[in-house]
Amino acid sequence: MAKEPLLIIAAGGTGGHMFPAQALAEAMLRKGWRVKLSTDARGARYTGGFPHVVQIEQVASATFARGGLSAKIAALFLIAGGTLVAVWKMLWDRPAMVVGFGGYPSIPALAGATILHCRRMIHEQNGVLGRVNQIFAARVHGVACGTWPITLPEGARGHHTGNPVRAAVIKREGAPYIPPGDYPMNVLVMGGSQGARILSDVVPQAIAQLPASILDKLRVAHQARDEDLDRVTKFYAKHGIDADVKPFFQDIARRMSEAQLVISRAGASSVADIAAIGRPAIFVPFAASIRDEQTSNARGLVAADAAILIPESRLAPDTLAEQIEAVLSNPEAAVKMAHAALAMGRPDATDRLVELVEALSGQGADN
């Protein structure tokens, strides 16, 4: 009796890599596939959310980005060893598809699949290819692109799937947008999973500068780091601003759906959530990123007039206050931004990923 087709998912240890990997694993299990996750010891610590039937296989891997020459040589040997192990395991249980989600832990499985000529693809969450995905983009059968547009190397075949969003976000997909008006209005401030210091430094001051006609009706939900929590809370209170300041919001999808404006970093997941629900946004990309991928992540929504982008180098209370007021004082423009964001969303990203896996593997219903 033939075994169900095997999917090997190769992913690193950050949420950016592991969340879409988990979404694909869950969907492929429902399709009757067997699923294995190939990761390293660091990545294995982030696998608690994966279904228990997913087999976790740890392989040796390492980054070339740290340390001197000796560390880079050691990394090379670790990756070579991990690749040999991956090849051996694939010989015993040949995958119908190998999908890499980026990060150095994905190298052994993708390299092994390349050596054995297995079907393989990668998923890139950001608007700029990561180092590992840059290496494999032209050596796989397809590149699932979470952010669009994206620049791919010659020979790479890109498919705009979008980034999978959480079930809580999907439930709020396209929730009716209540434009700014003469009633309570909500502003959501997000700086990624741990907040952002620069947003805690600038956003409260910018909001305090808004005219009383807006400020008197405003309610702020501000995600701040633990170390910034007290000072941000006190600032809002001192200026009589109704604000809920926390390091993490469990109900972020609800708060986003109720917001008239979102002020956020431009991480790929945040951008995907904002587009799926459909809300005007002001993005402040993370400036220290080597590849400046957050600016690329925001580019699509900015070009569609769904969002405003303010580089960190130009972020100041006066500048930000001007942009916040421009959105909250112009209901018609705010509605257009919300609709434009929704049009750019890909809430069906997981389904698109599944379809691409099936098509490229030859396991789809039409094959």
How is the topology of this model organized?
Elements (H helix, E strand, L loop, with lengths): L5 E5 L4 H16 L3 E6 L1 H4 L10 E4 L10 H24 L4 E4 L6 H9 L4 E5 L6 H6 L6 E3 L12 E3 L6 H5 L13 E6 L6 H12 L3 H4 L2 E6 L2 H13 L3 E5 L5 H7 L2 E4 L3 H10 L3 E3 L9 H11 L3 E3 L7 H12 L2 H14 L4 H13 L6
Helix pairs in contact: 1-15, 3-4, 7-9, 7-13, 11-14
Q: Low-confidence segments, ≥5 residues, pLDDT <50?
A: none
Shape: elongated
The total of beta strands comes to 13
Spatial arrangement of strands, main beta sheet: 3-2-1-4-5-6-7
String of helices and strands: EHEHEHEHEHEEHEHHEHEHEHEHEHHH
Count of DSSP H/I helices: 15
Distance between the termini: 20 Å
Report the major sheet. 7 strands, parallel
Rg measurement, Å: 22 Å
Instruction: Kindly estimate the percentage of residues that lie in beta strands according to DSSP.
Output: 15-25%
The average pLDDT score comes to: 92
Class by alpha and beta content: alpha/beta
Helix content: 40-55%
